[in-house]
Amino acid sequence: MNPSVLQPIHLGPYVGCKFRKASLMSLAVMQRSPVRFALALLALSVASMIGAVGPASAQYFGQNKVQYEQFDFRSFETDQFEIYFYPEEQQAVEDAARMAERWYDRHSRTFLREFQKKKPLIFYANSPDFQQTNAVRGQLGQGTGGVTESIKERVIMPLTGSYGETDHVLGHELVHSFQYDIALRKNNEGFSLRNMPLWFIEGMAEYLSIGRQDSHTAMWMRDAAVRGDLPTIRQLTRDQQSYFPYRYGQAYMAYIGGKYGDATVTDLYKMSGRVGLDSAFVYTLGITADSLSEEWKQSTRDAFLPATDGRTPVDSVGTAVIGDPGADNQLNISPAVSPDGRYVAFISRRNLFNTNLFVADAETGEIVQELEGTRSNPHFDALRFINSAGAWSPDGRRFAFITFADGRNEINTFNVQTGEIRTRTAVENVGAIHNLAWSPDGQSIAFSGLEGGLSDLYVYDLDQKNVRQLTNDRYAALQPTWSPDGETLAFTTDRGRDGTNFETLEYGEERIGLIDVASGEIRTIRPFSTGMQHNPQFSPDGRSIYFVADQDGFKDVYRYDLDEEATYRVTELKTGVSGITALSPALSVARRSGRMMFSVFSNGGYSIVGLSPEETKGERMTPKEEASNTAALLPPVQPKGDGLVGSYLEDPTTGLTDVDTTQTTKASNRLRLDRIVPPSVGASVGGPVGTQVAGGIGFMFSDILGHRNLSVFVQANGTIKDIGGGVFYSNQENRFNYGVGISHQPSARGRVGRTRSGQFVQIVNRIFRTQVGAQTSYPFSQTNRLELGVGGTRYGFSQTVRAFNRFGQSQEIDAGTVRDPIYFARTSLAYVGDFSRSGLTSPLQGGRYRFQVTPQFGSRNFVSVLADYRRYFYREPVTLAVRGLHRGNYGANEFSGELTDNFISETLGDPYQAGFVRGYSFNSLLEEPNCRANLESCRVGRLYGTRMALGSVELRLPLLGPEVLSLATFEYLPTDLVAFADAGVTWTNEDLTDLSFSSSTIGADATGRLGTGSTERTVAAQPVTSAGVSARVNVLGAIVMEAFYARTFQRTKNWDFGVILRPGW
Question: What's the pLDDT at 23?
């Protein structure tokens, strides 16, 4: 039974799924020809590409990318770019286009290169819209700020609501655009990006877009220097889990640019693409990677360690409430303390997969409530936590937080005592929501909203269910918080004196804004003349504002007295007060009690610290204490190079041009060639099908937005009649995804023999599989969908018989009567869910299921039913996996000995079918004594019927792999150890079933085998069972191999060893 109506080249529905019906091994066995095996590899490559562009419905399992909205994309051109946008974001995109032209001017001088053709830039108004894009395959998490892809060299990114941050992300992605422009041009044959580690690629993009002054990266480097864990280049390349490639990569690139000149950064890239990074260091810089590592480490220690003298270690400030500041790689962020100071809500990752919302006692850190989030809640897909924190109701009974659901952000509230979600609110006409603040009277929630790529302040009335917009301009409006009297909102902004200039696109550093909620009047406060000042929080009396600032290069908490207009230092840490990003919320103050909670960075992770009200008063600062933020400079502090990066970052006007949007047009739907599967040619001599020459080629097309996709492939297997191919089209523009296709696939099998007169005869039998189908799906969410398909298949047959004389001369002779064609028309309806999290060889957490019914009509009429349900229970470090599977063909009557029996049969003995009981493969049964005596007697029995049911249990232990997942760190050959138990039973329409355990062996008459010439079983169907151990190995990321050793309970041979080439179920 096939899982889909449309099945190109018998590799599964549209292919692209993990659980294919055929594999390289089964293809090799089926084709029995080296040429056909090569063509099977081509077919697999083409089919995988088809799967890559097909809708999610083309997969057996798989999560959905849902197009919740249909965007009216339009386009205009600048000197160097094709800009794609939709009308709501036009103002922000026009400014982003000017940024792009300025970045082009900067990067072209750095790379000494110009584009030969314009590059596409696709902008989305916010992150929820961006996560729906079809221009990037696969799911996009909220941590993805932009993507540059290599097929069409598109940059795809959301606008951030802060012009400075949007400019940084765009500059970063355009570095990748230049990198691809070098790597993919024909005049750079032999250039390989595979020679470059991630830290080098991303570190270069960070450095060329931010420069050397970056307090956030400096905080990471100080932390590593203080704990003596500065990585070498070799460690960076090999251990990306322990050393974040962006931060450490930026620091290394800053050192190279500062010592050798910024031009050497791009020279190093150009050389490493040809000779590898290690050799490029020698050729370009005249130094080995090991020596460079030691120089950088010493320079980093010299720059940062003296600056930490006299500052407070993280484990000595306040009270560590959540997490241990001495532990490695924790994630405890976005604290929000209750009004009375008794509880703190925060986001934490307590295992490898789940980032969830917790409520803890603010004194002891004991968890008192956990929101059952994306693991089990069907109402939302993800918590928003990178740029957002939640808010408490004034009575402390409810907590509001932001989720991603149905393609937009929602405000959810839940009862802190019961954990029950009370309300879900989707705010109309606001694309994204950040940073909630519950008003003191409990009647409204303020938030920062993103609409059209611009951030503004909004207030949502909980009783009236309406929203009021407080600001409406291009300035950033982030992280609002209420004053105790409810009349004022403090927020983070870039407006005011020395603020952002939208003509020259100079960006003001973040400072604090105060808006009168009634009148809308705004004033700004900038306690320090330099650095970022953000995340404001009012004191309980409303006379002070706490905030986070990096004015001296260290991120600390300060208090600003509104009456005195004086600033007080609250913390002075060796590392810093921070969330995941430089602008993430990190600070919260209890509205009534004044207790403070903030997240601190230490040991490569985040913990949450509490201060009593007395500890938050701070020490008053004098004007002379405001220092230059040299601690934010990445070493060398005094660069010797040309300073190209620093120069262009300080020059906002060079390269800045106006853009003309008068020629805006609707985005083109024209299909463009994406990829050609390299042509393959092969030949075989001799064998059962004789001498043959074969080859094939495939083509992939799509439109600029990735909505429409077309794939075409052709393969020639020898003669004219052996030419096959297919055409497949899919459309994913709307929520209803659909695909149509047609394919023709010949396959040949041959045999040779000798007539009674001694003449050699070659017989070649061909099957011609011609298929047409259409399939559509409707995704309800990222995790479940409904599929509907229709299609038809024709199987044609031919036989060629050639007789050879003793001189090798041949003559085609009459083959006699050829079998009539077989026809099937089918429809299918399926409900599919997938909320699993995958490891490196098999799923580790969550679950997946598929329920499908497929009526089939034609040469045989029957209804195929599929029920496949799988759950994965993860308790670090092991996973308990359970599966139940039923496949059945109903209404097909009994086996009749006709060829159509193959279409109604289900088996437990094929390793490459979903229902396989380990230890009972047909090939291994040849070793049974009764089977050796009579091969025909082993064809069916307990392993063969029109229906089957299977149950499996596995205990999976990651042995080798990444440090965060496995017992032993060895990323080059990830390996899982598995203990398993399988049980399955097959039956036909008329069978009795006996599910009791029986140890009678396969191959004996008593098992219910189908003897030679018989069409009926002799006894009731009984299960076959096995248990054992296996090892699954991910071989170079290309294929998963499982080697198992099974104890079989219904075979004469008690133990069986086997190998399967496929991922775990």
Answer: 26
Phi, psi of 247 (to 5 degrees): -70, -50
Q: The tokens 């080296």 sit on which residue?
A: 34
The pair phi, psi for residue 399, each rounded to 5°, is -135, 135
Q: How far is CA 826 from CA 829, 858, 888, 889, 924, in A?
A: 10, 9, 15, 13, 35
Euclidean distance between CA atoms 1021 and 986, whole angstroms: 7
User: Residue 626's pLDDT is what?
Assistant: 56
Are residues 285 and 261 in contact, defined by beta-carbon separation less than 8 angstroms? no
Residue 720: both structure tokens together: 């004219």
Tokens coding 619: 């020490």
In eight-state DSSP terms, residue 179 is H
Residues with Cβ < 8 Å from 291, sequence gap 6 or more? none
Using alpha carbons, select from 783, 755, 775, 752 the residue that is nearest to residue 765: 752
Rounded mean pLDDT, 580-599: 96
Q: What pLDDT, on the 0 to 100 scale, is given for residue 53?
A: 40
**Are β-strands 596-602 and 605-611 bridged in parallel, bridged antiparallel, or unpaired?**
antiparallel
The pLDDT mean for the chain works out to 87
Cα 623 from Cα 552, distance rounded (Å): 13
Rounded to 5°, angle at Cα 469 from 463 and 473: 170
Residue 816 φ/ψ region, left for φ over 0, alpha for ψ in the -120 to 50 degree band, beta for the rest: left
How large is the average pLDDT for residues 940-948? Answer: 79
3-state secondary structure of 224: helix
pLDDT of residue 280: 96
Neighbours of 462 (CB within 10 A): 18
Q: In the chain, what are the domain boundaries?
A: 836-1065
Q: Which two tokens stand for residue 781?
A: 């969410």
Contact 262, 641 (CB under 8 A): yes
* Domain at 836-1065: CATH architecture: Beta Barrel (2.40)
Place of tokens 């993280």: 314
- pLDDT of amino acid 55: 46
Among 690, 661, 662, 696, residue whose Cα is nearest residue 677: 696
Stretch among 66-75, 483-492, 764-773, 1004-1013 having the lowest mean pLDDT: 1004-1013
